[in-house]
Amino acid sequence: MTNACAFPYVDPGAVLRLDGDQWSLGLDSTRGTHIDVVVYRVRADVTAPEDEWLWVLGHRPECGYPAVDQHPPCIEIRLRSAALHGKAGLR
Ligand SMILES: [Zn+2]
């Protein structure tokens, strides 16, 4: 099993501003464009800390989370782990 504590975690609520070359797949997203994602959590169940690419569950800033009633993450995106480095809230 993957040790979740070894993950480059970003605090929930941190906003990732991703250029088109920093992510590759996302539900309901257009590839190659800039995208902002409010982090819910890293999917430690399907990605390992040493992976170059990580799956992240999150929200679009437009959805208003968490100001609106909580709802399941509305975006799942595969992004370069390097995109998480140097972010505020990294621990
Ligand atoms: Zn949402």
Task: Explain what you see.
By secondary structure, this protein is mostly beta strands. It has one domain. It is 0% helix and 32% strand. The protein is built from no helices and 5 strands. Strands 1-3-4-5-2 form a 5-stranded antiparallel sheet, with no helix packed on it. It is globular and about 35 Å long. The two termini are 21 Å apart. Residues 59, 63, 65, 71, 74 line the site of zinc ion.
Element layout with pairings:
Blueprint: E1 15-18, E2 23-26, E3 35-42, E4 53-59, E5 75-80
Residues 59, 63, 65, 71, 74 line the site of zinc ion.
Short structural summary:
With about 90 residues, the protein is mainly beta. The protein has strands at about 15-20, 25, 35-40, 55-60, 75-80. The chain is built from no helices and five strands.
List keywords for this structure.
5-stranded antiparallel sheet; mainly beta; 91 residues; disordered N terminus; binds zinc ion
Structural shape: globular
In DSSP terms (H or I, runs of 4 or more residues), the helix count works out at: 0
Structural class: mainly beta
What string, H for helix and E for strand, traces the elements in order?
Answer: EEEEE
Rg over CA atoms, rounded to whole Å, is 12 Å
- Pick out the low-confidence regions: 1-5
Largest sheet: 5 strands, antiparallel
Bound molecules: zinc ion
Structural domain tally: 1
In the sheet with the most strands, the strands line up as 1-3-4-5-2
Mean pLDDT: 78
Q: What fraction of the residues are assigned to beta strands by DSSP?
A: 25-35%
